[in-house]
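Design job #97: recover the sequence.
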C-alpha cells in the first residue's frame, strides 16, 4: 500500500484526504494542530495524524523519508523547503500553489534526481491552466493559433448567500486574500505591456458579463505575462489573467489601501478600541465625527460605499482590540473573519471563465468561451475545497500509478496530465461548458 504524506490540515485538505483514503492509499497527516488532522481522518484505519512544526526540518525529514509521495498544503513559503527534502530523499511531491522563483530553482536538481514536483494543480492555479491548455491545444491541432486570451476566476458566495455589503465571504482566515490585495500585476493588452503597481491594482478594474450569471468586477491577477511561455503563446496580442469579485469590492479595497489598512507594519494598540485605532489612521480627535473624518481623508462623500462598509464592519466601533500590537491588515482581517464568514448550510461558488480569440487556416476566426460554475455542498465540502484539492488528489494518484512520468518542477499544462485530470473532475461534476462562434 502506497503511503502519502499530507502536510497541513487547512480547510481545503479534507476532500483530498477522503479521496486518497477511498482509493486505497495510506495517509499520514502532519499539521501544526493535530486535532484538525484527526478530524479529517475521522478514525479511518489507513489514516494517521501527527503534530509537526514546519520549521523543524529535523522532524520533517523522517516523515518524507517514510512516505511514497508528499503533498504540501502548508503556507507557500514552505513549499521549496519540502521540495528540497523530497528531492534529497527521491520522493515525488504535489502542491497546489504557484511556482515561486525559489521552487523553479530546484528544477535542475529534481530532474537530476528523477523526481516529479507537480505544482499549480488546484483551481487557480490548476483547473484554469488545464482547461485553457485543452482549448489552446485543440486550436493548434486544427492548424490555428490563439491571438487573445483572457482568463478569470472568482471564489464567491453563491447568490442566495450573498447577503452582506462586501459581496464576499471567507471560508478561512482573510489574511491570504488581503495579502493578495497588495500585489502588483502585469499583462499584455493589444500588443502592449501593462504594468500595474500595487497601489493601483483595484483601479485597473473592468466589468465582465458572465452569461446569465450577471456582471462582475475583474482586476488583474499577478503576472499574466509569464504564462505566455508556459502556455506556448509567443506573439499573442492579449494575455490577461484576472480575479472576479461582486460589484463594489474594488472601490472598497482601493480606498482601504489608500488609508493604509492593507499595511503589515505593526502599531501599538494596547488598550485601544477600533475607533481609537481609526482616529490614528485618519488623523482626527475624539471630538471629530470619525466617519466624516475618514471620508475627508479619502476625498469621497460620507455616504460613499467604502465609508459605509468600514462602519458596517466595525472599524469605527468601541470594540476593544485583542492584542497590544497588530498590523492594520490583521486588525481589519479579524473583523472580516467574523462578519464575512459563511454560516452553516450556506454555499460558496467557484466561477472560472475563459475568453479566447483564435485565427484558423483560410482566414477563419473563432471566439471561444469556456465556463465552469461549481457550488459548494450545504453543510458539506465547499466548492473551493473541492476544486483546490481534488485535482491535486488525482495528480497524486497519477504519479503513484506511473501515469505521470516527467520529472522536474512541473505544471499541469501537457495533455498527459490535463486530459485525465479534467476527465475525472468531469465525472465528479466539476466540468466546463464551451461555446464557439465566428467573429
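Job complete. Output follows.
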Amino acid at each position: 500500500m502506497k503511503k502519502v504524506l499530507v502536510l497541513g490540515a487547512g480547510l481545503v485538505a479534507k476532500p483530498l484526504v477522503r479521496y486518497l483514503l477511498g482509493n486505497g492509499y495510506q495517509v499520514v497527516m502532519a499539521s501544526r494542530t493535530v486535532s484538525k488532522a484527526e478530524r479529517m481522518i475521522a478514525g479511518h484505519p489507513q489514516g494517521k495524524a501527527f503534530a509537526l512544526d514546519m520549521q523543524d526540518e529535523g522532524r520533517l525529514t523522517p516523515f518524507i523519508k517514510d512516505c511514497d509521495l508528499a503533498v504540501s498544503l502548508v503556507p507557500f513559503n514552505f513549499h521549496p523547503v519540502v521540495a528540497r527534502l523530497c528531492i534529497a530523499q527521491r520522493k515525488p511531491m504535489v502542491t497546489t500553489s504557484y511556482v515561486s522563483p525559489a521552487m523553479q530553482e530546484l528544477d535542475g536538481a529534481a530532474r537530476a534526481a528523477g523526481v516529479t514536483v507537480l505544482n499549480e494543480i488546484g483551481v487557480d492555479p490548476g483547473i484554469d491552466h488545464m482547461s485553457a491548455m485543452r482549448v489552446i491545444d485543440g486550436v493548434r491541432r486544427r492548424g490555428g493559433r490563439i491571438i487573445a486570451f483572457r482568463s478569470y476566476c472568482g471564489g464567491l458566495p453563491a447568490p442566495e448567500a450573498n447577503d452582506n455589503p462586501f459581496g464576499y465571504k471567507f471560508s478561512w482566515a482573510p489574511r491570504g486574500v488581503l495579502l493578495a490585495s497588495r500585489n502588483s500585476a502585469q499583462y499584455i493588452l493589444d500588443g502592449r505591456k501593462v504594468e500595474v503597481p500595487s497601489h493601483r491594482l483595484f483601479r485597473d478594474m473592468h466589468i465582465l458579463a458572465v452569461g446569465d450569471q450577471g456582471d462582475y468586477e475583474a482586476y488583474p491577477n499577478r503576472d499574466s505575462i509569464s504564462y505566455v511561455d508556459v502556455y506556448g503563446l509567443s506573439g499573442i496580442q492579449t494575455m490577461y489573467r484576472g480575479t472576479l469579485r461582486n460589484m463594489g469590492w474594488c472601490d472598497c479595497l482601493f480606498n482601504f489601501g489608500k488609508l493604509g489598512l492593507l499595511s503589515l507594519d505593526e502599531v501599538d494598540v494596547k488598550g485601544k478600541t477600533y475607533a481609537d485605532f481609526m482616529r490614528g489612521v485618519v488623523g482626527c480627535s475624539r471630538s471629530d465625527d470619525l466617519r466624516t473624518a475618514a471620508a475627508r481623508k479619502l476625498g469621497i462623500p460620507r455616504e460613499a460605499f467604502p465609508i459605509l462598509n468600514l462602519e458596517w464592519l466595525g472599524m469605527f466601533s468601541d470594540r476593544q482590540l485583542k492584542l497590544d500590537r497588530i498590523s492594520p491588515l490583521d486588525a481589519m482581517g479579524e473583523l472580516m473573519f467574523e462578519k464575512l464568514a459563511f454560516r452553516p448550510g450556506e454555499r460558496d461558488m467557484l466561477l472560472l471563465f475563459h475568453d479566447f480569440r483564435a485565427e484558423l487556416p483560410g482566414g477563419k476566426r473563432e471566439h471561444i468561451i469556456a465556463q465552469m460554475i461549481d457550488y459548494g455542498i450545504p453543510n458539506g465540502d465547499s466548492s473551493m475545497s473541492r476544486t483546490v484539492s481534488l485535482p491535486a488528489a488525482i495528480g497524486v494518484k497519477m504519479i503513484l500509478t506511473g501515469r505521470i512520468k516527467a520529472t522536474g518542477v512541473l505544471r499541469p499544462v501537457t495533455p498527459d496530465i490535463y486530459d485525465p485530470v479534467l476527465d475525472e473532475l468531469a465525472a465528479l461534476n466539476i466540468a466546463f461548458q464551451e461555446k464557439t462562434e465566428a467573429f
